[in-house]
User: Fold these one by one.
Assistant:
Number 1:
Amino acid sequence: MCIKYNHEKVEKKWRKYWEENPVNQEDPSKPKYYCLDMFPYPSGSGLHVGHWRGYVLSDVWSRYKVLQGYQVLHPMGWDAFGLPAENDAIQKGIHPEVGTARNIATFKRQLHEISAIYDWDREINTTDPEYYKWTQWIFVQMFKKGLAYEKEMPINWCPSCKTGLANEEVVNGSCERCGSGVTKKNLRQWMLKITAYADRLLEDLDQLDWPEKVKKMQRDWIGKSYGAEVDFTIEGMDKSIKVFTTRPDTLYGATFMVLAPEHAMVKELTTEGQKEVVEQYVQTASMKSSVDRMADKEKTGAFTGSYAINPLTQKPIPIWIADYVLADYGTGAIMCVPAHDERDFEFAKKFNLSITPVIQKEEGDIQEITEPYTGEGKMINSGQFNGISSEEAKEVIATYLEEQQIGKKTVSYKLRDWVFSRQRYWGEPIPIIHCEKCGATPVPEHQLPVTLPEVESYEPTGTGESPLAAISDWVLTTCPRCGEPARRETNTMPQWAGSSWYYLRYVDPYNEKEIIDKDKAKEWLPVDMYVGGIEHAVLHLLYVRFYTKFLYDIGVIDFEEPFTFLFNQGMITKDGIKMSKSKGNVVSPDDLVNRYGCDSLRMYELFVGPPELDSEWDDRGIEGVYRFINKVWNLIAENATSKKEATEEMERLRHQMIYEITTRLDQFNLNTVVSGFMEYTNKLIDLAKKEGGIDPETMDALIILLAPFTPHIAEEFWEMRGHKNSVFEQTWPIYDEEKMKEDRIEMAVQINGKVRDTITVGLEEDKEEVLSKAKTAIADRIQGKTIVKEIYVPNKIINIVVK
RNA sequence: GCGGAUGUGGCGGAAUAGGCAGACGCAGCAGACUCAAAAUCUGCCGGUGGUGACAUCGUAUGGGUUCGACUCCCUUCAUCCGCACCA
């Protein structure tokens, strides 16, 4: 007989129960575990099955930890500042606050469908003044430490969003948000000195249990390289130019020099005759967008007319400008060694500049140089350094430069300081007041938050001013230091500001006096498990590490890394492409929940594939999970009141099941946990049929194992079994390896590595017995042949090698 | 260009201190139940040959190590991702 379960009724019942009896109640005696999801931006389009995946994953993990006896912190909140709400405001005239609140309500309703054990009492919202008060507070602390500073410089500018962007927000030369080509714009900007933390951000990666891919991306982004700064004096001038090189060993081969078009000395170095050419080149270079500059690999440049002196050869070398040299890396100027650098070689060929080899690949004369040699070798044409290896020369020449005071060993980073101001409305106002007399002055802490004022138009001005600049009665204020009339800073913070420290606030969300209580921080932090997509590898995940280190430095917290363990879940794809509203390929969870229930969908989200890889979505597959749940229902329903004693075989199956589920879960192989449940349930059903029932202990173990995955049905089963309390008040079952062991096992018998038969052997049988049994089994196959070798691997295989 | 990941039936995927490839599920086929359908249950389900027990090939490609390779080493190819003139 088949009894079908009513998922709607069951799920409704237990949701109501959990509302009155939360699963994860406060208990000071329990050890703490903090499991965090990357909080979402509440967009208007709602959740699809791809979003579910990460949330299910972290909830399964949280519930598992509850059953292991932890008190779990599993909060949720909203990263709610950002462009879409603001663009809606511009188009539809709805205040971003209104639109955001509406989207949050939708998101929250949809998240409830997952039945995660979120602690909604700790919900945070980055746009709440009570929250961003502290976002601003951190900025003020950074300002006081000199880590937030103003600078006028050419920055990345998105012409469509009409705002400046951080380096991290430029992806392949385009705006990370809207995809428009990024240009440069000279603007006064607030910057955060993340470069001051470059070394610590790099070194501390080693201690993190994060995916190697993310760590590598961060290492590459920080881009530390060792080298030397070398001074080249300018011929006929009492000045010098500093260059950065990672190859001091090639200094004798430096036959020309190139400056970035934006280099400060370009004007000074340009001779009368070259003026027109140089000015034209600088002009053209400044017009190029990042995309063009990247796509256009053909070398271009202009000669300034001036010469520098190579400090080792004492020969004059021409100074050029070219846009393949970046203004904001190293010193913005390079020495060029065309014989040993591909780019310099290309440039030298194009403009017919001389090429001097200084490293010999192998013995013999160098004929003509047809391509640059970038490897190691023996030094030549390098005066006193001839004959040593180039590897050695790197160190020796750098040391020599230091002794002669014409250079010094140094390091350089690809990481740039963080452009932190945005010329948009919907963000945290930067809490600074500009006073003519006192300069930039932070808003006193007791006056925080500086709240966002109402504006008439949210439209970005495009001039480099934020819409806030138009509200004169907000802008005009007095200097907190001298009391004279002053102006408020009108730029806002980037969306990353609020998310760079939010994980702290969940621990102590209502604290009005400080950002977080020290004792509570000690109790809960850092985060034990952080779950989210990989798209933030060098954005959010870098920024949040920077903020954490800063807060450590000023004594707010006593740890330096926010997330001990990071898990990146793969995307859900449909027809091979990422599921998204704009692609029109989203699958809504609503129908599936209605038809099969939350428990089925939760389990299916895990079953689609390895959680760290992208997985293709197929609605039909959920049927299998649904059938599985019904099978368990029947098994439990038919045996609910069973008082049967477990047979040895049943007990063995139980321990094997606990072992398999637990170890797979611990390794995060969640797709195989689900298949494991199916496999063992099938075995239990077969055995129950054979033995006329199943014992209570095995049933209870199965129910507890299922609880993190299918919580509603697990509670229902628990109740069916006659237990009074919640299944989540139980403890995770443990296995006994002794009781898992089979007393008879099947072994494959191979001839020359090919399986020809199988034999059943008992635990007590020794090598000789097994081998003779095997040989009997394959006797007619090896008749007349000579046995060369016999391989016996206990419990695994027998291989008879014959000739 | 550099770096990384991935490649197994019609499909999603199992199996790595080297040891019976295809677990589990989807789809499909056949049967049972039914007036019928759905649901459920049972069986089959990589290719080729054979009525058949069986033989043979088979984990992107070609080679190597080994008694034995999806797993280790080398070659090539394809797809995806990251970085991209960082001196």
Number 2:
Amino acid sequence: MAHDYDFRSIEQKWRKHWDANGTYAVTEDDSKEKCYVLDMFPYPSGAGLHVGHPLGYIASDIYARYQRHRGKNVLHPMGYDSFGLPAEQYAIQTGQHPAVTTANNLKRYREQLDKLGFCYDWSREVRTSDPVYYRWTQWIFAQLFDAWYNQDSDRAEHIDTLTAKFNENGTYNVNAGNDPEWWKDLDRAEFPQFSEHFAGEFTAVDWQSFTERQRQLVLMHYRLTYLADSWVNWCPALGTVLANDEVKDGVSERGGHPVEQKRMRQWSMRITAYAERLLSGLDTIDWTDSIKEVQRNWIGRSQGASVWFELKDHSGKIEVFTTRPDTIFGVSFMVLAPEHPLVAEITTADQKAAVEAYQTAAKAKSERDRQSNVKDISGQFTGAYAVHPFTGEPVPVWIADYVLAGYGTGAVMAVPAGDQRDFDFAKHFDLPIPAIFEGVDLSEEAHADKGAVLANSDFLNGKTGYDAMGVCIDAMEEQGFGLRKINYRLRDAVFSRQRYWGEPFPVYYKDELPQLLDELVTLPPVDAYLPTEDGEPPLARAKNEDWNVFKGDRMETNTMPGWAGSSWYFLRYMDPHNTKAFCDRSKSDYWGQVDLYIGGSEHATGHLLYSRFWTKFLYDMGYIGFDEPFKKMINQGMILGRSSFVYRIKDSNRFVTFEKRKEYQTQRLHVDISLVENDTLNVEGFKAWRPEYADAEFELNDEGKYTCGHEVEKMSKSKYNVQTPDELVERFGADTLRCYEMFLGPLEQAKPWDTQGINGVHNFLRKLWRLFNEGTEVRVSNADPSKDSLKSLHKTIKKITEDLERGSWNTVVSALMICVNELTDQGCHHRGILEPLTVLLAPYAPHLAEELWSRLGHSGSVNDATWPAFDEKHLKEDEVNYPVQFNGKVKFQLKVDASLNPKQVEELLLANENTAQFLDGKAPRKIIVVPGRIINVVV
RNA sequence: GCGGGUAUGGUGAAAUUGGUAGACACGCCAGAUUUAGGAUCUGGUGCCGCGAGGCGUGGGGGUUCGAGUCCCUUUACCCGCACCA
């Protein structure tokens, strides 16, 4: 018998039908409740989709379809994060414009996505590299440029409110979310009127006397995106700077190239102004604890105090940040980072040579070495002494590279008794370890517990660390050498990239002052996609007339980072064709937050943080009405590949089967998984695979086969273990693949890809087909369905509805299988059952459901069918068997009326005392009847 | 080191509030049917044991009439952060 279930023609037919009828187009409709279901949009790489990509897309598609059946107006769009490095690198190699490469890749992606039957509204597609889109990315940049963070109102405000304040009262009463020591970076040559004591404060009269240029220079230190010299992660191999989240273990996340610290003039985003709100906002959103925790760690809030230590024989002060001000009486030395600006000033003549040698050595160490040699203790005494603010005792000042220049103030007060690193340092250099805790042994290690009672600590004696904390800070504030302070690990995000394939800045320069452009700046053509010979970004190759707008002395030639476009794309879907605004407020008010966002957790410190930042900013400025973008997020696990290996005998072209590999010195090589079936190598195919294997020899196993080794690894082109969805769709159909990917296991879990079970899922769809059809002929009865069939159906409605509500995609497939098995056993072909079953099936197997729906005689789309209602009465049973247990063992079954409540069953059992005695020999003393189905009798 | 997570048959996994652990599927075994179809159907399949029976959710302890589920403790693996003062 030929295939009854002809998935190829069915799927093709309905794809065309949906496309022609605009089945998935959606518009705002106030009469319906909205639901916004979103996938993280992909970067269209040249490799195309592999089976891991659709996992999340299928899950969100199912959810979107389900919500549509529930009567919601569902926004479910898709687009492309189409600026990025691979297209640019391909351009460098081949000279092909990245736009061309991107367009080709995009076409491939679209074809692959189309085959999977997603219900995207493609009329809303966005592409970040499209000028129509990035015009608004540039616009948002401009809004950030024209804004500052007012900590008094705790929101971003237009820069005009800041200049108004300056005009009225100068810096007095200005409480901005910028670096409190911004004035240190001000170019003093530009401000000859400032005395050497200038510390960031000026009056209204000062402000009014500033030239326009001076005003702009000051304002630059307040803007939410600003141009400044800063220490950046420079990656020479990529020829660009990277943000902290793009650097992992001292090397670039993409490509694994070394990264060094470099001082460069760059655009930055003042995300630090939002640190506290990014932290507190986490409590309002439904994300996993793990990803919230990653963001919390990344923001790294720590509460403590700033303390100033005066220096002996020097006018300067050392400022430190500490989370343990209560242990201040345990300070026995200070440590500065080798890069600390005070080091050169305070070092005594006799220590000068040693200190400089140490500084040089520290500088030579790469970031990576510094991290990996954590255990090595090194340091150098400067010869200088600080003064303990409470006791007046001299405290020696050291430098050591365990203190980081970039965190806090780059200086610490060392308390060996309370901090393990300080303790180790003290032991190593034989420095004193003052005992400041009552009854704590400090011979082996430091005691970091805040619950310990303090001793030898003057007015703090007898208090625990918890209690002493506040008292101590109060005392320091009173005496003027300390302040309560909250420190964040989060740094401002570098926003410039020295690349071609990104958004140009809407910025030009006049006398080296950046000026905004209020119009689209498109990417100019260039003759090569490489930096210029002077190390300028590729855009510097463009001639003045190549720019669509050219103003001032020169244009900004950096481009924006990859995360710029992806930080707001979810808003553009709401109003994708608007040429007047990035998104009309009425549209964003209707669609609101993303109700369900599905994507990988690898974006925790990148995209997911930046999106929250921009959303909060746009909210502050009144452009949208919500300040968290993604209400609920689910992170799908990665699908891993199963790589296959062959074993080549060293220095030969002879390959030995897996079983015998240990008899030789072999080299393990990846082999393309398409040449391997059930771990057996297709030898002829292998020879044809690569020219160097054409005359390979093989040592086979006892069955005359070549067995490959295998391992679960990340799917990647270089490991030849990529499984594309295309061939599976070809063989089994999109509906089978959709069900199978969900059936694999919980969405959140990482799992190796394995096609072993796909037949089972395919068989289920065929079995389902046979419920409706005899061969290709419809067989549906209009008679009343049996009680059993109604029970099977309603059990399934209940289960599937609950599962979809709680996001358990995998168990739904099992529930459908059980239902089909039961209906098959019952010989059920009744319309009253099959019709609702088709709707239950529709989210998972949309093509098949549509076909069956039309075969049932409907002219409309199954997508518009209402989700079947669950009716409890069909699940009620007349009689229930209550197993009765004695000491955990089932002794007899008690048949009772299903309507009885547990109390009544208990009475019934007591009335059956004779039976119980017969089984046990004794009468039951205590009977517990639970609403489940079990009765325990304790004897 | 800190934080988060996972652990159940040969395999992927179910078990939603503590209630007959292993649903559903793969694989495997036996049989039927058929002979070129990645076929279909029937039965079996946690482990030990011929059996009655015993043992079973990483290990140990606890709460409970009853624990995969709750509490304590411990081990292994995965992910993230990491001289952050």
